[in-house]
């Protein structure tokens, strides 16, 4: 009969559903806690833990899946040692985990954690943040090596930060194959983000009497699987503490704490380390969001301004000639193509016109939605593998919707980037279980045939660039019609109407675009300064929009934006205006509104959106809203900036929230 195996640093009890009768215990119960089972094996929880503690366990666990937090207790008749108790339900049983609590300087631990949290909060870039994290964890736990392992899109792990002692070698910069992190292991970290192996060589404890019906995969005390034991031994590790780093869309990476000898970590220290990891992860996501925002702003600053596009229309060829160098630098590309009306305008290193023509033809057939298309391996991509593109390795193509039946294309090309990867152990195309992988020394791999990966923020920026180019090209076409087709009044009127639509309305949601809502804000600013008429801006975006696109496809993402715009627009007063600011961001201009009216409107819109249902989308749609009310001295830029800061606070405060902008700082003299 199979018996679950447990680690010896804690003891385990299996209770009935009512938390009264003990059905099984770990073999180290008496040795660790002094609790002795009678010879007949019958023992109540009250006899083992005392009447008061057992009643508290039953009361707090009643109707709950697990205790809200650990309970501490002492068995004064047996020992002065303090113990910590966790309890949770599994099927028809209750599992109780007990660990001893050795004396700790709680005030000193709290002070150390608070100091390290301050260091994390002050970090200004990811490298500094992760270095501070691993050093703090090593100081708290005393492990020989603390490493941060980040997963790439193929689930290979890269050691990006490390704090190192003297007894284990460095892993910094080394990679681990995806076979070391099977999907079952990655999923387990979603429910159990902390895993401790105190001594990989220690003989395991068992449940007595044998109790094979209950799964203990969720127990913190469970013994490591044989393949995990062999894996750690191959790394020269005897003790391991692992913590998950959860990103916006899943597991970003893991923190590994390794020791060459058996090493214990007290529960308060584990809790402190988990707090540090959670804080560092949130700070890292915030830093990344700020970095992406700065990059998007740089791209927006490079765009052809709408007012200039209308007053001084430029041909696609001239646009590309003037802006190509800037765009290639921003997107780290070595070639760019603007395909308009069946012709290609090229700059930098690009394929032949024939290859470009075939490429666009295939894109038109295969890529029907409005989002970007990209690859980093043109030679292996089914769409392009048969095309002659010897000097190109990666491509990013953005469709430009000129009208209902015609699309232009903006295409960026990247060269091959030969990359040397340093693997800690050899990856395999057919991953084998760790138990039968033969030991191997670290080795180098030269990756060829790939370009740099197209980052999410680069794809978003390319879409922004494409929207502005659509307007600029349309303006040029209208200008040409005005010069050469004056007698074609009907055609000219239709073209001017199309230009007006493109200039003022977002092509997807049909609400005002960024240029038009900025015009309205500026007009409202003039009125506010002259008549002191208060107004407000509500800046909001869709929470977890990237996850919706990745999980359900861009067509569902487009449906969300369209339905959201319709709902909000129909809920506004006639004097209020809605505009799409970019991507999943929208702005509401609420005229004649003070603080209370603006916040009330924001809360009403937030509640309405939360009830929105989209066909094909199983998750709720929510928004985070930042509210800024005009103050004397505000400009369009400062007002939007304050609303944007408030929106970010709403997003990082839990999403589906409304936050009020801070008052503008008074000018110093």
UniProtKB/TrEMBL annotation:
Q: Which positions fall inside the Phytochrome chromophore attachment site domain?
A: 125-282
Domain GGDEF: residue ranges: 533-663
Q: Which reaction does it catalyse?
A: 2 GTP = 3',3'-c-di-GMP + 2 diphosphate
What top-tier enzyme class does this entry carry?
A: transferase
Pfam families in alphabetical order:
GAF, GGDEF, PAS_2, PHY
Per the database entry, which stretches of residues form a coiled coil? Answer: 478-505
Reading the lineage from the top rank, the first entry is Bacteria
EC number of this enzyme: 2.7.7.65
Q: Which InterPro entries match?
A: Diguanylate_Cyclase, GAF, GAF-like_dom_sf, GGDEF_dom, Nucleotide_cyclase, PAS-like_dom_sf, PAS_2, Phyto_chromo_attachment
What GO MF annotations does this protein's record show?
Answer: diguanylate cyclase activity
SMART domains, per the entry: GAF, GGDEF
| Keywords, in A-Z order | Chromophore, Coiled coil, Nucleotidyltransferase, Photoreceptor protein, Receptor, Sensory transduction, Transferase
Protein known as: diguanylate cyclase
Q: Which organism is it from?
A: Vreelandella neptunia
């Amino acid at each position: 009969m199979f018996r679950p195996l447990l680690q010896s640093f804690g003891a385990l009890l299996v209770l009935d559903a009512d938390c009264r009768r003990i059905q099984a215990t770990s073999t180290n119960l008496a040795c660790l806690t002094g609790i002795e089972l009678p010879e007949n094996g019958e023992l109540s929880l009250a006899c083992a833990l005392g009447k008061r503690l057992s009643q508290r366990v039953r009361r707090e666990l009643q109707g709950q899946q697990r205790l809200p937090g650990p309970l501490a207790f002492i068995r004064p008749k047996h020992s002065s040692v303090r113990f910590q108790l966790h309890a949770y339900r599994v099927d028809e049983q209750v599992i109780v985990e007990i660990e001893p609590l050795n004396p700790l300087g709680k005030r000193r631990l709290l002070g150390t954690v608070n100091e390290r949290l301050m260091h994390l909060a002050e970090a200004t870039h990811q490298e500094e943040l992760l270095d501070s994290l691993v050093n703090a964890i090593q100081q708290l736990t005393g492990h020989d090596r603390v490493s941060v392992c980040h997963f790439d899109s193929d689930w290979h792990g890269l050691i990006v930060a490390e704090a190192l002692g003297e007894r284990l070698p460095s892993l910094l910069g080394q990679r681990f194959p995806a076979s070391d992190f099977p999907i079952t292991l990655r999923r387990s970290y979603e429910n159990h983000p902390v895993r401790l192996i105190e001594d990989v060589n220690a003989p395991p404890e068992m449940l007595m009497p044998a109790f094979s019906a209950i799964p203990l995969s969720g127990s913190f005390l469970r013994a490591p699987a044989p393949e995990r034991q062999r894996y750690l031994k191959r790394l020269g590790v005897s003790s391991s503490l692992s913590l998950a780093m959860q990103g916006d869309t899943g597991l970003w990476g893991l923190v590994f704490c390794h020791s060459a000898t058996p090493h214990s970590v007290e529960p308060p220290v584990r809790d402190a380390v988990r707090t540090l990891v959670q804080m560092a992860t949130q700070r890292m996501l915030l830093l990344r969001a700020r970095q992406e925002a700065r990059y998007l702003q740089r791209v927006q600053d490079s765009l052809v301004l709408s007012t200039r596009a209308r007053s001084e229309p430029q041909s696609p060829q001239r646009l590309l000639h003037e802006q190509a160098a800037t765009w290639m630098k921003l997107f780290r590309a070595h070639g760019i193509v603007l395909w308009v009306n069946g012709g290609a305008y090229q700059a930098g290193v690009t394929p032949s016109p024939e290859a470009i023509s075939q490429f666009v033809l295939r894109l038109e057939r295969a890529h029907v939605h409005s989002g970007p298309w990209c690859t980093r391996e043109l030679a292996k991509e089914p769409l392009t593998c048969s095309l002659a593109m010897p000097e190109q390795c990666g491509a990013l193509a953005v469709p430009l919707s000129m009208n209902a039946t015609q699309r232009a294309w903006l295409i960026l090309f990247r060269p091959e980037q030969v990359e040397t990867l340093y693997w800690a152990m050899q990856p395999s195309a057919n991953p084998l279980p760790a138990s039968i992988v033969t030991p191997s020394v670290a080795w180098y791999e030269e990756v060829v045939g790939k370009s740099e990966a197209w980052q999410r923020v680069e794809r978003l920026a390319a879409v922004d660039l494409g929207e502005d180019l659509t307007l600029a090209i349309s303006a040029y076409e209208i200008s040409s019609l005005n010069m050469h087709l004056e007698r074609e009044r009907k055609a000219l009127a239709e073209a001017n109407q199309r230009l007006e639509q493109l200039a003022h309305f977002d092509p997807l949601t049909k609400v005002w675009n960024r240029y038009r809502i900025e015009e309205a804000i500026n007009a409202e600013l003039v009125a506010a300064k002259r008549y002191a008429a208060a107004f407000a801006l509500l800046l909001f975006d869709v929470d977890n929009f990237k996850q919706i696109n990745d999980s359900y496809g861009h067509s569902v993402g487009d449906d969300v934006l369209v339905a959201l715009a319709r709902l909000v627009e129909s809920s506004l007063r006639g004097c209020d205006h809605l505009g799409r600011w970019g991507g999943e961001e929208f702005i509401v201009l609420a005229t004649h509104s003070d603080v209370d009216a603006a916040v009330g409107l924001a809360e009403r819109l937030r509640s309405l959106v939360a009830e929105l249902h989209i066909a094909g989308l199983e998750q709720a749609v929510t928004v985070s809203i930042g509210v800024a009310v005009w103050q004397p001295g505000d400009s369009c830029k400062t007002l939007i900036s304050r609303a944007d800061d408030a929106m970010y606070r709403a997003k990082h405060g839990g999403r589906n929230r409304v936050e009020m902008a801070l008052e503008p700082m008074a000018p110093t003299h």
